[in-house]
Amino acid sequence: KLKDTRDTETVLLREKHIGPSCALFFREDPLKMVRARGQYMFDEGGRRYLDQPDVIKAAGKQLELLSTSSRVLHDSTVEYAKRLAQTLPEKLSVCYFTNSGSEANDLALSLARHYRGHQDVVTLDHAYHGHVSSLLDISPYTFRKGKDVWKEFVHVAPAPDTYRGKYRDDHPDPASAYADHVRQIIEEAHKGGRKISLFGSSFEFQILSLLQTDPPSLPHPQYGKQSDIDSARGTQHIFFLTVQPS
Ligand SMILES: Cc1ncc(COP(=O)(O)O)c(C=O)c1O
Predict the structure, then answer these.
(1) What is the span of the domain harbouring residue 164?
(2) pTM: predicted TM-score of the whole model, two decimal places
(3) Signal peptide location in the record (predicted)?
(4) Residue 51 confidence (pLDDT)
(5) More confident residue, 147 or 120
(6) How far is the CA of 170 from the centre of ligand 1 (A)?
């Protein structure tokens, strides 16, 4: 049984035994979950947060039955893939199941590079795509901090932020202005003899997230113009999108 320590003690133990690169969120007032019931989780102070009991129950049931590798036959793997595919456009019918966002994005990167035969990636400024080395390379959030080198195959587009970004609410058409930047970056890269294999977008910056599905499933009022979707689609690049449940 876990000892129920106060959060200051947990922080001290964390500083001692957990690597500092795994930075603690909300350092000033860290979040410490201590229990869950029904659809809620509760922190140390008794504050209530949403939880999802159906997911926990299903995961527990599956573990009780069998926990195995996805490299052997199992009905739950194929049934789940089939159900997922039924919620997506016809062309998106093949799944890979991974253990983390980093693993999923690393796989997306290799798939795109194999398929395209090119190395280059367009990424949004400030984006974070995961903690494995392939993704640190394409995450300005990390490589702009100094220690890592900005690789020549990485092209950074401005984040479509209408509060603090390059084009703001007072711009007549920020969506097209941001999309034009991406087009320019691709053209410049082509002029320099480079070829883009992938456009990576974190959910936080949904710029081209609408391009993931047809019809678009994540409409964002600023990026919803059909002409933008059509013209960016015309570039025939591969997009990946990370959705972070927290
Ligand atoms: C946008 C985004 N992409 C990828 C990741 C990496 O996911 P994971 O921590 O599951 O490897 C995160 C994690 O914070 C994220 O916020």
Answers:
(1) 101-242
(2) 0.74
(3) none
(4) 80
(5) 120
(6) 32
